[in-house]
Amino acid sequence: MSKLLDKVLYIDLGEGTYEAVKQPELFEQFLGGSGLAIRLLLKECPQGTDPFAPENPIILAPGPLGGLFPSAGKTVATFKSPITGNLGESHAGGRLASSLKMAGYGAVVIKNSTPTLTLLEISDKGVNFCDASPLKGFSSLEVERRLRGCTAVARMQSLLSIGLAGENKVSYACVNVDRYNYFGRLGLGAVFGSKNLKAISIIGSGSIEVPDPELYKKTFKKVYKEEIETDKMAKYHFTGTPANVLVLNEIRALPTKNFQQGSFEYAEAISGENLGERWLERKVSCPLCPIGCMHIAKIRHAFASGYEYEPLDIYHNYESIYALGSNLCVKTAEEILELIHKANILGIDTMLLGNVLAWATEAFEKRLIDREHTMGLTPTWGGTETYLQMIDQIVLKKNEFYAKLAQGAEKASETYGGDEFAMVLGGNGLAGYHTGYASVLGTIVGGRHSHNNNAGYDIDQKILHQRMKPNQVIKGLIEENEWRYVLTSLVICLFARRVYTEKRIIDALKAVGIERSVNDFKKLGNEIYKLAFDFKFREGFDFNKVKIPKRLFESSTANGKLEESVLTRTLEEYVKNSSIRKTKL
Amino acid sequence: MPLQSTIRLEHPERCIGCYNCVFACSLELFNVVSATRAAVWIKPCSLGDPFIVTICTLCDDPPCIKACKPKALQKDGDGKLKVADPSECKKCETFDCAKACITCALTIDLETDKPIICTQCGKCAEACPHEVITYKEKQQ
């Protein structure tokens, strides 16, 4: 019995062919997830590839614990990102990892493109290439309704799809996974669109075998009990990540009005607690996870007079609330949910959308753009109705201005000015943490320029509450950058990071027949971090060229005002101390 | 002797779609983690809809037993469903037992082509974090 599912499914969209290839060494070295997907990307993506060229591959990799342990079932996608022009790495939950593994695949590589809008049907029998023309322009919600199978064979099915934003190659279009999950950031949806790939259905009708069922059951029970009987994941279960709204507002770290402020007058109204009281309808889970972190709100949208309503159920999390709420000064939870729904229907990442709209509002205020650009619309802080219309125009790329907005705030500011308030680092829009140096530095030195790479925001909060010293920032970020690559190679959900300690992971792997040591993890994390930057440097990333928006030094963070010279100095020191192989600093 | 405890759908509306019941069942019955090789299943018409949890409720006079012409499927002394004579099972070749269950609680194992029978072991209830399924004394 193979302990690691080591089959990679190669799909050629252009030729309409596929082949499953065993690659045991690759899986032995990287286990799965981030490590495997970045390694495959380095191999499959030719240097200098245009993100929208057929040569840009899409790689999907679950991990060795996927489908077997609670909160360890995410899947990593890698590709060249149209928004950063560099390493695209995005993570999604849902049923994808379980379905892929139950269909017998350890990873998928999708190459080339097709002239016809296509649905890929993947199962243990192979791949069907179906004409997806009838789905053109459909939202992912509609694709879900139409393609979700009800038969006994399809009991474990995962559905990936893009909306109109992906079809129209909006650079930050996302891929919806099983209705409530997303490959959200870095534009995988646009890469799908560039290949004419509308949707993928994966049916996992097979089984995952475990070498020692008794040991497996015992170990599983330990993890499961820890998740539901301790407070290690309580936040994600009860209020969910929207609990951050009030916590960050309190310490003045809730980005408001495009990072001009760190607190929001209406924080209470848009808080996770208020959403829980008034709008929350239910919680949904990924396979084997008892937490149910996906918080689903129900609102009724009045579309005409005479009590005409459409019922909407909307998955929401902290990042969407910050991006389309406080950062745009939208003051009610209901309006934020409407904006999130709009983004979901069209298939755009809520974080980057909020980022772009905030830039556009400020650019309009500062008269860098006018009503001619906006086609008669007047964006103002908190102007939800206008924002809803602008989102349509962006997705349709209605004119030159909206086509620029469809490429992100950084590209728009290159044309219209206002780069001092385009809140972008390394090409990616900033997450919702105006906490201090570690958050900014962490975003710059993270492989995908995400707060999730190293949780700099967490280090900042520890410094604020004097549980860490400022001189520990560099060491903390290096350790976290590398350790998180271990977690995301397994692929453990980062919400469960306090449950999955080194010892717990060793036990879990052992229970499914994989022997690894603490030392192995150290080497693995370090190697993957280096690999990520190998790709980044190969594709032209340069620490000296990372533009840092002036706004970050103008408004106060939770830890006070930041100084550019201090940040630059710390960055230089970080790069010197880290294991990154080649730097231009 | 009547059966001591059976599984029951207690709070179906509380399901979060976590599949812990399903995999606990496949492990118990077949020692594998599988969504198809289990006697419990979660029907997802669309993930926007409530999850439909399907379990064998062990009818008093089960239609699956009545449909089994070779009389392979029976209730044993404990009142549990059981394939009493495996050599007779599948002789119908039309899976009449599965067709007879209007809730689709009895399905056919894709590996063996034989019905997957719920043994009323209660492992699914034990695994459920929300008391969607409970394991209790059978109500008269």
Give start-end ranges of low-pLDDT stretches of chain A: none
Strand order of the largest sheet of chain A: 2-1-6-3-4-5
Q: What is the third-level CATH name, the topology of the largest domain in chain A?
A: Aldehyde Ferredoxin Oxidoreductase,  A, domain 1
Helix content of chain B: 10-25%
Tell me the Rg of chain A in angstroms: 22 Å
Based on CA inertia axes, which overall geometry of chain A fits? Answer: globular
Computed over alpha carbons, the radius of gyration of chain B is 15 Å
Biggest sheet features of chain A: 6 strands, mixed
- Number of helical runs of chain B? 4
Please explain how this structure is put together.
The complex is a heterodimer of chains A (585) and B (140). The mean pLDDT of chain A is 95. Chain A folds into 3 domains: 7-203, Aldehyde ferredoxin oxidoreductase, N-terminal domain (Aldehyde Ferredoxin Oxidoreductase,  A, domain 1, 4-Layer Sandwich), CATH 3.60.9; 231-425, Aldehyde Ferredoxin Oxidoreductase Protein, subunit A, domain 2 (Orthogonal Bundle), CATH 1.10.569.10; 435-498 and 517-577, no CATH class. Chain A contains 23 helices and 18 strands. Chain A has 585 residues and is of the alpha+beta class. In chain A, the strands form 4 sheets. Chain A has a 6-stranded mixed β-sheet. A 6-stranded mixed β-sheet of chain A has the order 8-7-12-9-10-11, with helices on both faces. Chain A is globular. Helices cover 39% and strands 16% of the residues of chain A. Chain B is an alpha+beta fold. Chain B has one domain. Chain B is 19% helix and 18% strand. Chain B has helices at residues 20-30, 63-67, 96-100, 123-127, and strands at 5-9, 32-34, 41-43, 52-54, 73-75, 81-83, 133-137. Chain B has a two-stranded antiparallel sheet. In chain B, strands 3-4 form a two-stranded antiparallel ribbon. In chain B, a hairpin with a 5-residue loop joins strand 5 (73-75) and strand 6 (81-83). Chain B is globular and about 40 Å long. Classes of the chains: A alpha+beta (585), B alpha+beta (140). The interface between A and B is large, with 41 and 33 residues.
